[in-house]
Design goal:
It is flat and about 65 Å long. It is 20% helix and 38% strand. Among the domains are: 32 residues, no CATH class; 76 residues, Immunoglobulin-like (Sandwich). The strands form two sheets. A four-stranded antiparallel sheet has the order 1-2-7-6, with no helix packed on it. It has a three-stranded antiparallel sheet with strand order 3-4-5, with no helix packed on it. With 162 residues, the chain is an alpha+beta fold. Strand 4 and strand 5 form a beta hairpin. 7% of the residues are buried.
Length: 162
């Protein structure tokens, strides 16, 4: 069955109200997801099944170490599990938040729950004594020193200038 889309603007025409264009795209995306929930990229499918708690990661590698920074707003250190299994860094956490606010003329009750598991292949099995981990203000920073054998395996390839 062919999809029917709302008419769009012609080439060169400016959109006087960009909000409606983005709203239209979002509505189409939602309807497309209902038609085929497994359409789209693997990341879309994973996000659809896991919710929006997936942390953003920054990974920086140099010759001697890998530094990984994960943004984990609202996650308590006690609810965070960091481990290494066969050369794969695994970050897991569960977040729960309960708000029960009573004021003179209203009451607000909200509950939010979520969990995530994120794996990062390192390419080597580090010595845990060479890992420095800090957690401050919802940001986890890991500095993982590479073992000597992992450093020795790295070989630089020179690119010839033409």
């Amino acid at each position: 069955m062919a999809q029917q889309k709302l008419p769009t603007k012609t080439v060169g025409e400016t959109d006087p109200m960009p909000f409606f264009g983005s709203l239209q795209k979002e509505i189409e995306r939602v309807f497309d997801q209902f038609r085929d929930p497994f359409a789209g990229s693997a990341r879309d499918i994973f996000a659809f099944s896991q919710g929006s708690l997936m942390p953003a990661l920054d990974i920086v590698e140099n010759d001697n170490a890998i530094e990984i920074t994960a943004e984990l707003p609202g996650v308590k250190e006690a609810d965070l599990d960091v481990s290494i299994d066969d050369g794969v860094l695994v970050l897991k956490a569960e977040k729960s938040e309960n708000i029960d606010e009573k004021k003179k003329d209203y009451r607000l009750v909200e509950r939010r729950y979520g969990s995530f598991r994120r794996s990062v292949p390192l390419g080597f099995d580090p010595d845990t004594s060479n890992i420095k981990a800090t957690f401050k203000d919802g940001v986890l920073t890991l500095n993982i020193r590479k073992p000597a054998e992992a450093i020795a395996k790295t070989k630089k390839i020179e690119i010839a200038k033409s």
